[in-house]
Design a protein that fits this description.
42% helix, HU Protein, Chain A, 93 residues, three-stranded antiparallel β-sheet
Length: 93
């Protein structure tokens, strides 16, 4: 099952007794902070959950899988996630 934003908002609304608009703000605010931090190239560590890291990928040789033609892939930044040991232990019960 996939947890979607609407389910998070509804869960927070019920648990905290907040109106839907405030519950939505509670869900959106941390993600906006995380996105802005990652855009600046900084890592985000959430204790007990994991770490989002920004990594730079160099220009490299690639291949178009449809045509088989060689091409050069541009430099880019990617976001990786490494879960914490505590989260890993809970998932692997």
């Amino acid at each position: 099952m996939t947890l979607i934003k609407a389910q998070l908002v509804d869960s927070i609304r019920k648990q905290a007794g907040l109106p839907k608009t405030k519950a939505s703000l509670v869900v959106d605010s941390p993600w906006e902070i995380i996105k802005k931090t990652l855009e600046k190239g900084e890592d985000v560590l959430i204790s007990g959950f994991g770490k989002f890291c920004v990594k730079d990928k160099r220009k490299r040789k690639g291949r178009n899988p449809q045509t088989g033609n060689d091409l050069m892939l541009d430099e880019r930044r990617v976001v990786t996630f490494k879960c914490s040991g505590r989260l890993r232990d809970k998932v692997n019960l």
